[in-house]
């Protein structure tokens, strides 16, 4: 079980939130799309104190240290601008002299043995995946002790967290459908992402989704580097089995997509708390409020899809992200049969019965016509 609670976390309410929750005091802190530092990918109890090769001052350390650019990398790349930074690495816009094109060069910032091993795996796993909505790997290497991955540049990349506030509901669902289908491809290859969240789903300048950051992924055939009972992921998006440190599966990514879907539908994260410990407790022991109880205009079919993705038991969720993506696609097309199936599955899942029988049944019967967005 979880032994974390290092910090108390604050978060801004998403800008597209339809209305404040009745119990939201201005001083209340919640976990929605907050400060990315607050919701960083994490391996609780990681070996941060053991530093690896840090002899090259030009490279960034951790999440904040500034870098003086441009930097020559491995005699091949010229990094000119920082594009973003997460829990594992810093990503730079760089020119690749060999391929004569711009790339997104990710350099590891977490120089612990585990961090370096995870980065090596990220390269290995991402290299093995090829899908138009996943970011492809162009090259990998090491520069002065720092491993790097040259990814395809996602031009004009914005994260889902940046895009959602400006997108209408249909658009948000389309983006999630494409992310789900891309993750479904990874699942088909035996890869579980394990860190699906708004910061790891990019949208390019043409509006296409590109899922990235397989830094915490597991893959069939690779030995585990997470010890049993260790907690891995980003708190707000963690599935109950992740919180408990149990084995993850494609259904773990389905849960995280369910969290994003909940945010797309209501503007809120399904669980909100003042501390990670409280959040973890809620994820394991509570059920999210049905989206339609926050906003009655949420189409009942999408509510049913969302709640199926957020079932406590992995077996009650969609088996993989592709299945979820296909249901989202059907909901977008106004396929009422799908809506009904998702609703019936919701009813079959015991931990939903208390509220599904009231909220969803009423919505389902009365609001089928509203399903088409
Ligand atoms: N291929 C890319 N093209 C453009 N920007 C990118 C690309 N990859 C990552 N970024 C930016 O860098 C940020 C951090 O990248 P990410 O791979 O998620 O790092 P971390 O593993 O540290 O979380 C992303 O949120 C995004 O803003
Ligand atoms: Mg990331």
Structure in words:
With 373 residues, the chain is α+β, with helices and mostly antiparallel strands. The chain has two domains: 23-154, Phosphorylase Kinase, domain 1, CATH 3.30.200; 157-368, Transferase(Phosphotransferase), domain 1 (Orthogonal Bundle). It contains eleven helices and 13 strands. It has helices at 113-127, 160-163, 169-188, 240-243, 250-266, 276-285, 291-294, 300-309, 321-332, 336-348, 353-367, and strands at residues 42-43, 71-73, 77-85, 89-96, 101-108, 137-143, 146-152, 158-159, 191-192, 201-203, 209-211, 218-219, 232-233. The strands form four sheets. It has a six-stranded antiparallel beta sheet, with helices on one face. Strands 8-10-11 form a three-stranded antiparallel beta sheet. Helix 8 packs antiparallel against helix 11 (353-367) and helix 10 runs antiparallel to helix 11 (353-367). The relative contact order is 0.13. The protein binds adenosine-5'-diphosphate and magnesium ion. The site of adenosine-5'-diphosphate has 24 residues, from strand 3, strand 4, strand 5 and strand 7.
């Amino acid at each position: 079980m979880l032994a974390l609670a290092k910090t108390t976390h604050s978060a801004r309410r998403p800008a597209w939130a339809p209305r404040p929750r009745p119990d939201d005091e201005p001083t209340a802190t919640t976990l929605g799309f907050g400060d990315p530092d607050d919701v960083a990918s994490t391996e609780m109890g990681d070996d941060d104190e053991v530093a690896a090769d840090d002899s090259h001052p030009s490279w960034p350390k951790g999440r904040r240290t500034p870098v003086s650019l441009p930097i020559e990398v491995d005699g091949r790349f010229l990094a000119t601008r920082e594009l973003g930074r997460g829990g594992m690495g810093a990503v730079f816009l760089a020119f690749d002299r060999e391929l004569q094109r711009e790339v997104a060069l990710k350099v590891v910032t977490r120089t612990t043995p585990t961090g370096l091993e995870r980065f090596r795996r990220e390269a290995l796993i991402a290299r093995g995946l090829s899908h138009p909505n996943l970011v492809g790997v162009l090259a990998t290497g090491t520069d002065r002790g720092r491993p790097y991955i040259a990814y395809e540049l996602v031009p004009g990349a914005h994260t889902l967290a940046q895009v959602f506030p400006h997108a209408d509901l249909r658009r948000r669902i389309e983006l999630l459908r494409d992310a789900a289908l891309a993750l479904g491809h990874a699942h088909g290859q035996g890869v579980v992402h394990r860190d699906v969240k708004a910061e790891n789903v990019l949208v390019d300048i043409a509006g296409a989704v590109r899922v990235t950051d397989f830094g915490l992924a597991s893959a069939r055939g690779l030995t585990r580097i997470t010890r049993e009972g260790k907690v891995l992921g980003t708190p707000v998006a963690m599935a109950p089995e992740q919180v408990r440190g149990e084995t993850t599966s494609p259904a773990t990514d389905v849960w995280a997509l369910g969290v994003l879907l909940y945010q797309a539908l209501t503007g809120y994260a399904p669980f909100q708390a003042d501390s990670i410990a409280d959040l973890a407790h809620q994820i394991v022991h509570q059920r999210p409020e049905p989206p339609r109880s926050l906003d009655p205009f949420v189409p009942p079919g999408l509510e049913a899809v969302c709640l199926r993705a957020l079932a406590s038991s992995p077996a009650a969720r969609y088996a993989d992200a592709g299945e979820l993506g296909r249901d989202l696609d059907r909901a977008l097309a106004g396929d009422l049969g799908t809506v009904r199936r998702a609703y019936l599955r919701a009813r079959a899942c015991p931990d939903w019965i208390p509220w599904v029988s009231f909220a969803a049944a009423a919505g389902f019967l009365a609001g089928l016509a509203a399903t088409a967005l």
